[in-house]
């Protein structure tokens, strides 16, 4: 049986959808870095990779060793290939400049190097999320340092988005803007192999994901919606819902891409100045592109996430994504 590896899929995309060769190379390199991260994650205590550093990232979160290692793996893999004008990451305050000794390219890469870091030490799935934008204008040909402004483009401008999930299997889930494909890492072969040809989110669902411990801090529309979900078949929605919360967005979104559901991380009253916990540029936007490409929807409660004009690199956003009917319902409650 001939198997479609990621490399072969990308070459076919170049033929059928004019995917530029440099974008193809960029995705290959990100995938290679994800293989290295997968390897490090899977070693666990044997590799001495568990536990925390003594540092905090720009968001004031304690960094895990694997947060820092994954960030370094992605930077080192991607800095020399000539496809990028710069990178930005959850773990770095400012954009990463491509060192002067390497060529620059037309794209910008953003990532959450290790998503779900609270799950590392308890052996639960974690992942890497990435988003690719074009560098506006001729910014890659300029000698000046690349500023934050180049990255501040709405999610609709993404040319590729995806994640790797490090779970029972390591998978890469990818969109180049024409559907969503899933690749499973064949460890003997060392390649990602196409195993999920056409990932679609079912339109309706009976499963939801939210951190219920924050219930008392939510805004009224979210309280109303979740109360209705919990009321089950005796409530206005007239069916019973199941709940799952893994606390790794990658794993929760992967489940939704597999069997449907709605994922919510609303803004809440704990930190009123912040519109939610998740980050727009390297969590919400790439996941929204995947979900929309799979036939689902993604909003911040009032507006499509991918239409938001970002104001800063580490901006936060409320997230409602997944099966269309449910996302539309909770979004409508915000407008009621
Ligand atoms: P990160 O590990 O990159 O900081 O992201 C964690 C995020 C996301 O993956 C998850 O959905 C959410 O935080 C979980 O938050 P709670 O711990 O508040 O449930
Ligand atoms: Mn994250
Ligand atoms: Mn992270």
Number of domains: 2
Bound molecules: 2,5-anhydro-1,6-di-O-phosphono-D-glucitol, manganese (II) ion
Radius of gyration: 19 Å
Helical content stands at: 25-40%
- Count of individual helical segments: 7
Low-confidence stretches: none
* Gap between N and C termini: 54 Å
Average per-residue pLDDT, rounded, comes to 95
Tell me, what's the shape?
globular
Largest sheet: 8 strands, mixed
Q: Could you walk me through the main structural features you see in this protein, from its secondary elements to its overall organization?
A:
The structure is a single chain. By secondary structure, this protein is an alpha+beta fold. It has two domains: 6-196, Fructose-1,6-Bisphosphatase, subunit A, domain 1 (Fructose-1,6-Bisphosphatase, Chain A, domain 1), CATH 3.30.540.10; 207-335, D-Maltodextrin-Binding Protein, domain 2 (3-Layer(aba) Sandwich). It contains seven helices and 17 strands. The strands form four sheets. Strands 4-3-5-6-7-8-9-10 form an eight-stranded mixed β-sheet, sandwiched between helices. Strand 3 and strand 4 form a beta hairpin. The mean pLDDT is 95.
């Amino acid at each position: 049986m001939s198997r479609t590896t990621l490399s072969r899929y990308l070459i076919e995309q170049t033929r059928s959808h004019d995917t530029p060769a440099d974008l193809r190379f960029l995705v290959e390199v990100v995938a290679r870095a994800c293989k290295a991260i997968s390897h490090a994650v899977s070693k666990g205590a044997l590799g001495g990779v568990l536990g925390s550093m003594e540092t905090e990232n720009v968001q004031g979160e304690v960094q895990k060793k694997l947060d820092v290692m994954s960030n370094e793996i992605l930077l080192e893999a991607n800095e020399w290939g000539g496809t990028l004008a710069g990178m930005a990451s959850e773990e770095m305050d400012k954009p990463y400049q491509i060192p002067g000794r390497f060529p620059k390219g037309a794209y910008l890469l953003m990532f959450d190097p290790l998503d779900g870091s609270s799950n590392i030490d308890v052996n639960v799935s974690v992942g890497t999320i990435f988003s690719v934008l074009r560098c506006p204008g001729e910014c890659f040909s300029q000698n000046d340092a690349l500023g934050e402004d180049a990255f501040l483009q709405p999610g609709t401008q993404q040319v590729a988005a995806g994640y790797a999930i490090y779970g029972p299997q390591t998978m890469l889930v990818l969109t180049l803007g024409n559907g969503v494909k899933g690749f499973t890492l064949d460890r003997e072969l060392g390649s990602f192999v196409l195993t999920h040809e056409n990932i679609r989110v079912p339109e309706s669902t009976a499963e939801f994901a939210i951190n219920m411990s924050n219930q008392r801090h939510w805004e009224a529309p979210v309280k109303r919606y979740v109360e209705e979900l919990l009321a089950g078949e005796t409530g206005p929605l007239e069916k019973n819902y199941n709940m799952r919360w893994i606390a790794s967005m990658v794993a929760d979104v992967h489940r939704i891409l597999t069997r449907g559901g709605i994922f919510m991380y609303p803004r809440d009253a704990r930190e009123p100045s912040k519109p939610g916990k998740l980050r727009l540029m390297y969590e919400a936007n790439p996941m929204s592109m995947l979900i929309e490409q799979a036939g689902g929807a993604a909003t911040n409660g009032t507006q499509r996430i991918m239409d938001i004009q970002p104001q800063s690199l580490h901006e936060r956003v409320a997230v409602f994504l997944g099966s269309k009917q449910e996302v539309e319902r909770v979004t409508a409650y915000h407008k009621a």
